[in-house]
């Protein structure tokens, strides 16, 4: 006797939000009154939130905006825009976005909280000063090389 056919259920992917659309970004309003622990936890949460809800291509675009607000030259900004995404990192885009949105760069209460945690080594440093500016400097260097190569190719093709 033949067995009846059973339809297999198709697995469905979990719904994914479209590039952070219609989401409310974490706010840094009132951080001055927060405890060091609250600032630190909010910073970690905000970093994870951007990582989970935005694609890397969207996050890289925060760096030139941050550069413009922090006094970089137009040539430097152009170089970073021409640099490959591998010259920056997703974290650089996130740190730039957080700085644009008003995250404290380095807060004494947060630094004191960090030192009080068991197993942490060294003192807490500013992510903008320590990390982001180094990544931007590297991206500028790489981007300027890319721009030079593009200009040479245009000269050769133009002749």
Summarize the structure.
It contains seven helices and no strands. It is an all-alpha fold.
The general outline is flat
Number of discrete helical segments: 7
Number of domain modules: 1
State the end-to-end CA separation. 80 Å
Radius of gyration: 22 Å
Q: What share of the residues does DSSP label as strand, in percent?
A: under 5%
Structural class: mainly alpha
The low-confidence runs, each spanning 5 or more residues with pLDDT under 50, are none
Helix content: 55-70%
Major pleated sheet: none
What would you note in describing this structure?
- The protein is mainly α and 159 residues long.
- The chain has one domain.
- 58% of the residues lie in helices and 0% in strands.
- It contains seven helices and no strands.
- The N and C termini lie far apart (80 Å).
Based on the model shown, name its key terms.
159 residues; mainly alpha; 7 helices; 58% helix; 0% strand
Secondary-structure topology with pairs:
Blueprint: H1 36-53, H2 56-60, H3 62-69, H4 74-82, H5 90-100, H6 108-116, H7 127-158
Helix pairs in contact: 1-5, 1-6, 3-4, 3-5, 4-7, 5-7
């Amino acid at each position: 006797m033949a067995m009846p056919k059973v339809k297999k259920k198709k697995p469905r992917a979990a719904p994914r939000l479209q590039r952070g659309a219609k989401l409310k970004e974490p706010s840094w309003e009132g951080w001055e009154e927060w405890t060091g622990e609250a600032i630190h936890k909010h910073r970690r949460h905000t970093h994870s939130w951007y990582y989970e809800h935005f694609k890397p291509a969207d996050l890289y675009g925060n760096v030139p905006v941050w550069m413009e607000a922090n006094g970089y030259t137009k040539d430097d900004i152009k170089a970073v825009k021409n640099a490959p995404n591998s010259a920056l990192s997703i974290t650089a885009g996130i740190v730039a976005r957080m700085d644009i949105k008003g995250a404290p760069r380095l807060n004494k209460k947060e630094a004191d909280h960090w030192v009080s945690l068991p197993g942490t080594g060294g003192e807490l440093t500013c992510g903008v000063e320590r990390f982001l500016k180094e990544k931007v400097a590297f991206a500028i260097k790489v981007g300027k090389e890319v721009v030079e190569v593009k200009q040479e190719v245009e000269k050769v093709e133009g002749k």
